[in-house]
């Protein structure tokens, strides 16, 4: 399929965009990456996602698909010849979807809460909540992975993509706050998984380096501060 | 012999209702287990340790949680009427609107109903914007799913039935036929659709349930 058939609107530091890039790489789909500029949404983005005006948007044969996990499922359902992303068993699919929803609804909001917490008390409270969730993730990895290397089992799957795309920002939080969220002693399953995921062919080069993300975060924080002072 | 199917829910909950509707559409027999959310059963906590919430579907002894996840599971497990469309692009569109309704609309509508003063004014404004979007999306179709009800219609149940009742309970006029003629027509089609009609909780009991509360139940997802 020609590269022009598939376009991806996004920005490289976005874990939501990274999900789609990884899924496309997994299926060996050529695509054109249209990088959006921060603070200025393109005409194409506004036209393709008028409801949310957000990235990622994948355009396939001139039809836009929005919301990262919806795009990943679409990719899996259209390109059936490559490796499968969602498990084949309905119960395993339900588990993958359940935990993917957990990333959005609970885990990532708590990670952001920790990063933005002001004062020791708020930080400690957020960290405690997050560490409890990391224990849940360790259990989920054992159950979903069934003793193999990924949440998807032997191969990278839906939940690996849904959660793994956030490893960049997880590492940013670890470095900036000098904490360990994934620990070889406390969460050995996750520790092994994180390394395997990040070095996978479909993932290499997608998630930006931690240093770059920290630099970007500092840039945003400065921009936000300047805006609020004007 | 078919494996038993159990559903942990609350009669007044739009979330467990979604699952019941899907099971009924597929002709699946199930046992409904009414939960008391002020005193959650050991089984509920065992089957949904992460969120401790209803609905939980139990099939072949294995629990599935989160109503949208359960709906997709039901569609994939049992043959019969399709809940999601066959075409991948149409499925993506259906999932998009279901997410929009579940995450944005319902939350804004719930807040608009139960908040007061300035907060309510702001919430009503936001809710109306979302309703306008849905009004446009309907494009005069009978259902969000087209000629027959589908995934989006099931997920939009709060707007389809609960909203009108809560509006009456709290004395709020949000979804009116003047402002949202398409949506009101859709509601009419919805509540008169045989499988929906046969499954709705009794209107007067639901009205009494919401009138009796000074505070809303613990938020949209209870």
Automatic annotation (TrEMBL), chain A:
<dbReference type="InterPro" id="IPR004045">
    <property type="entry name" value="Glutathione_S-Trfase_N"/>
</dbReference>
<dbReference type="GO" id="GO:0005829">
    <property type="term" value="C:cytosol"/>
</dbReference>
<keyword id="KW-0808">Transferase</keyword>
<dbReference type="Pfam" id="PF13410">
    <property type="entry name" value="GST_C_2"/>
</dbReference>
<dbReference type="InterPro" id="IPR040079">
    <property type="entry name" value="Glutathione_S-Trfase"/>
</dbReference>
<comment type="function">
    <text>Is involved in the conjugation of reduced glutathione to a wide number of exogenous and endogenous hydrophobic electrophiles.</text>
</comment>
<dbReference type="GO" id="GO:0004364">
    <property type="term" value="F:glutathione transferase activity"/>
</dbReference>
<protein>
    <recommendedName>
        <fullName>Glutathione S-transferase</fullName>
        <ecNumber>2.5.1.18</ecNumber>
    </recommendedName>
</protein>
<dbReference type="GO" id="GO:0009407">
    <property type="term" value="P:toxin catabolic process"/>
</dbReference>
<dbReference type="InterPro" id="IPR010987">
    <property type="entry name" value="Glutathione-S-Trfase_C-like"/>
</dbReference>
<comment type="similarity">
    <text>Belongs to the GST superfamily. Tau family.</text>
</comment>
<feature type="domain" description="GST C-terminal">
    <location>
        <begin position="89"/>
        <end position="220"/>
    </location>
</feature>
<dbReference type="InterPro" id="IPR036249">
    <property type="entry name" value="Thioredoxin-like_sf"/>
</dbReference>
<dbReference type="InterPro" id="IPR045073">
    <property type="entry name" value="Omega/Tau-like"/>
</dbReference>
<dbReference type="InterPro" id="IPR045074">
    <property type="entry name" value="GST_C_Tau"/>
</dbReference>
<dbReference type="InterPro" id="IPR036282">
    <property type="entry name" value="Glutathione-S-Trfase_C_sf"/>
</dbReference>
<dbReference type="Pfam" id="PF02798">
    <property type="entry name" value="GST_N"/>
</dbReference>
<feature type="domain" description="GST N-terminal">
    <location>
        <begin position="4"/>
        <end position="83"/>
    </location>
</feature>
<keyword id="KW-0963">Cytoplasm</keyword>
<keyword id="KW-0216">Detoxification</keyword>
<dbReference type="GO" id="GO:0006749">
    <property type="term" value="P:glutathione metabolic process"/>
</dbReference>
From TrEMBL, chain B:
<dbReference type="InterPro" id="IPR036249">
    <property type="entry name" value="Thioredoxin-like_sf"/>
</dbReference>
<dbReference type="InterPro" id="IPR040079">
    <property type="entry name" value="Glutathione_S-Trfase"/>
</dbReference>
<keyword id="KW-0808">Transferase</keyword>
<dbReference type="InterPro" id="IPR004045">
    <property type="entry name" value="Glutathione_S-Trfase_N"/>
</dbReference>
<dbReference type="InterPro" id="IPR045074">
    <property type="entry name" value="GST_C_Tau"/>
</dbReference>
<feature type="domain" description="GST N-terminal">
    <location>
        <begin position="3"/>
        <end position="82"/>
    </location>
</feature>
<dbReference type="InterPro" id="IPR004046">
    <property type="entry name" value="GST_C"/>
</dbReference>
<comment type="similarity">
    <text>Belongs to the GST superfamily. HSP26 family.</text>
</comment>
<feature type="domain" description="GST C-terminal">
    <location>
        <begin position="87"/>
        <end position="218"/>
    </location>
</feature>
<dbReference type="InterPro" id="IPR036282">
    <property type="entry name" value="Glutathione-S-Trfase_C_sf"/>
</dbReference>
<dbReference type="GO" id="GO:0006749">
    <property type="term" value="P:glutathione metabolic process"/>
</dbReference>
<dbReference type="Pfam" id="PF00043">
    <property type="entry name" value="GST_C"/>
</dbReference>
<dbReference type="GO" id="GO:0004364">
    <property type="term" value="F:glutathione transferase activity"/>
</dbReference>
<dbReference type="InterPro" id="IPR045073">
    <property type="entry name" value="Omega/Tau-like"/>
</dbReference>
<dbReference type="Pfam" id="PF02798">
    <property type="entry name" value="GST_N"/>
</dbReference>
<dbReference type="InterPro" id="IPR010987">
    <property type="entry name" value="Glutathione-S-Trfase_C-like"/>
</dbReference>
<protein>
    <recommendedName>
        <fullName>Probable glutathione S-transferase</fullName>
        <ecNumber>2.5.1.18</ecNumber>
    </recommendedName>
</protein>
<dbReference type="GO" id="GO:0005737">
    <property type="term" value="C:cytoplasm"/>
</dbReference>
């Amino acid at each position: 399929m020609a590269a022009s058939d598939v376009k991806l609107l996004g920005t490289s530091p976005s874990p939501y965009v990274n999900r789609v890039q990884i899924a496309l790489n997994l299926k060996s789909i050529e695509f054109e990456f249209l990088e959006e500029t921060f603070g200025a949404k393109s005409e194409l983005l506004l036209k393709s996602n008028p409801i949310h005006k957000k990235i990622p948007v994948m355009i396939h044969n001139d039809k836009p698909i929005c919301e990262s996990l919806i795009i990943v499922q679409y990719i899996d359902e259209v390109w059936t010849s490559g490796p499968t992303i969602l498990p084949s068993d309905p119960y395993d699919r339900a588990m993958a979807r359940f935990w993917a929803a957990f990333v959005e609804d609970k885990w990532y909001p708590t990670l952001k809460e920790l990063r933005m917490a002001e004062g020791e008390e708020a930080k400690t409270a957020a960290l405690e909540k997050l560490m409890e969730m990391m224990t849940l993730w360790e259990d989920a990895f054992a159950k979903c992975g069934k003793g193999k290397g990924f949440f998807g089992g032997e191969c990278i799957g839906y939940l690996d993509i849904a959660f793994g795309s956030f490893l960049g920002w997880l590492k940013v939080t670890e470095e900036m706050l000098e904490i360990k969220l994934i620990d070889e002693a406390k969460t050995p399953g996750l520790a092994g998984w994180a390394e395997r995921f990040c070095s996978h062919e479909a993932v290499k080069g997608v998630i930006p380096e931690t240093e770059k993300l920290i630099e970007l975060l500092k840039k945003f924080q400065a921009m936000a501060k300047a805006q609020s002072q004007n | 012999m078919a494996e038993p199917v159990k559903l942990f829910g609350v009669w007044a909950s739009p979330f467990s209702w979604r699952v019941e509707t899907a099971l009924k559409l597929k002709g699946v027999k199930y046992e409904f287990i009414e939960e008391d959310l002020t005193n959650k059963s050991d089984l509920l906590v065992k089957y949904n340790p992460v969120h401790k919430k209803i609905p939980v579907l139990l099939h072949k002894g294995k629990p599935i949680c989160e109503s949208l996840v359960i709906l997709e599971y039901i569609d994939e497990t049992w043959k019969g009427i399709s809940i999601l469309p066959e075409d991948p692009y149409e499925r993506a569109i259906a999932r998009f609107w279901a997410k929009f309704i579940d995450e944005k609309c319902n939350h804004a509508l719930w807040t608009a109903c139960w908040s007061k003063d300035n907060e309510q004014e702001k919430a009503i404004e936001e809710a109306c914007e979302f309703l306008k979007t849905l009004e446009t999306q309907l494009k005069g179709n009978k259902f969000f799913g087209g000629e027959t009800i589908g995934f989006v219609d099931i997920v939009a149940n709060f707007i389809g039935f609960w909203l009108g009742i809560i509006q009456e309970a709290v004395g709020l006029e949000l979804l009116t036929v003047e402002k949202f003629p398409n949506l009101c027509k859709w509601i009419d089609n919805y509540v008169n659709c045989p499988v929906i009609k046969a499954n709705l909780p009794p209107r007067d009991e639901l009205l009494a349930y919401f009138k009796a509360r000074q505070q809303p139940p613990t938020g949209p997802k209870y």
